[in-house]
Design brief:
mainly beta; Beta-galactosidase, Chain A, domain 5; 6-stranded antiparallel sheet; 1 helix; globular
């Protein structure tokens, strides 16, 4: 059995073993807590957020993200008919790549196809399934944790050795700041995101009575397999118009083009708990997805039975299939360049 000595970074009170992977590596759960009692828990399998507990007015806490109680459940969830990627870092390329191929520097790159004839969320063994090492841990005021993964050259057929770090910071203002830094030894493509499913009424409930706002006047048009056509559609007077707050859709899997002038990318509000969550990002898009279904095959945290309306994802990212559309924002990470992606989830009570 292989263990990892992290005692120089973390104390036992906020670090616990979360189980062993098949290769014997021990996965740990790290809990960050701020002065308000808000808690953020992360495991280093997939750099996954397992819980976000937000204090309520009555001093109780509510867990606002979906997840599992055991490491084995996270591992097994990738074998579900539709893997949920609960709380994981997704990549090297989040979203779909048409037929799993693209041209880079005049060469056709063929990625592994793991979603029918297409490549989705980094392939068969993307970042979500990897063991990330603990790079740094800061405790006290505004605690944070930094995890690192080094992706080998040709992993899932992506060119170059990719070194990627994600930092989770819990501020004293009840913000969860997610920040990525990466670089590669060769020109490659990169588009990562955080795949938490949020439910401001607790992870055992439905999102259908919560309210959604998205500052986006356009969405990506897609075909029947949700592959971008290259066209952009206006949201005005259509079902994707969330420029004014309205009830969450019960089914959506759509990429919104963010209004870069807006202070807030998107927001979610529960009239029941009076919790409001604002999302801001430096990315050009947010892919919004409602789901979480575990098909009755795996129980969620606290024996929850997750279903098709259990949570909503805000996947801040570049456009899906961007390498195959010259007019989309470039997803190329050149050798020697630095990738930087920041997304902030801010929680507040609104009376």
């Amino acid at each position: 059995m292989q263990k990892n000595n992290y005692s120089q970074f973390a104390s036992p009170k906020n670090t616990k073993s979360f189980g062993l992977l098949p290769d014997g590596k021990e996965v740990f759960c790290y809990t960050l807590t701020n002065k308000n009692g808000m808690e953020l828990a992360v495991i280093n399998y997939g750099a996954t957020i397992t819980s976000i507990k937000v204090p309520l007015a009555n001093l109780e806490k509510i867990d606002v993200v979906l997840g599992f109680d055991t490491l084995q459940a996270y591992v097994d969830s990738f074998n579900l008919p539709n893997a949920p990627y609960f709380g994981a870092v997704v990549g090297r390329y989040a979203g779909r790549i048409n037929e799993g191929s693209f041209i880079l520097n005049g060469k056709t790159i063929q990625l592994h196809k793991n979603h029918g004839n297409h490549h989705l969320h980094g392939g068969n063994d993307g970042l979500s399934k990897q063991f990330w090492s603990l790079k740094n841990r800061i405790e006290g005021e505004s605690p944070s944790i930094t995890l690192q993964y080094i992706s080998k050259n040709e992993e899932e057929n992506y060119p170059g050795i990719l070194t990627i770090e994600v930092t989770y910071l819990l501020t004293e203002n009840n913000q969860v700041v997610v920040e990525y830094h990466a670089h590669a030894t060769e020109d490659t493509i990169l588009n990562v995101t955080q795949h938490s499913y949020f439910n401001l009424e607790g992870h055992q409930n439905s999102i259908e009575k919560q309210s959604l706002l998205v500052n986006a006047a356009k969405v990506l048009e897609t075909d029947t397999l949700n592959i971008p056509t290259g066209n952009l559609l206006h949201t005005a007077n259509c079902p994707f118009d969330f420029m004014q707050q309205k009830k969450c859709p019960t089914s959506i899997d759509t990429t919104f083009v963010i209004d870069q002038k807006a202070k807030i990318t998107a927001s979610l509000f529960s009239d029941k708990t009076k919790i409001n969550m604002n999302i801001t990002t430096n990315q050009p898009a947010v892919h919004i997805y409602v789901g979480g279904n575990c098909f009755g095959m795996i129980k969620g945290k606290e024996n929850a039975a997750y279903h098709t309306k259990s949570g909503i994802c805000f996947e801040t990212q570049n456009f899906p299939d961007a390498p195959n559309h010259a007019h989309f924002p470039s997803a190329i990470l050149k050798k020697g360049e630095r990738y930087h992606h920041q997304t902030i989830f801010s929680f507040e009570h609104i009376n």
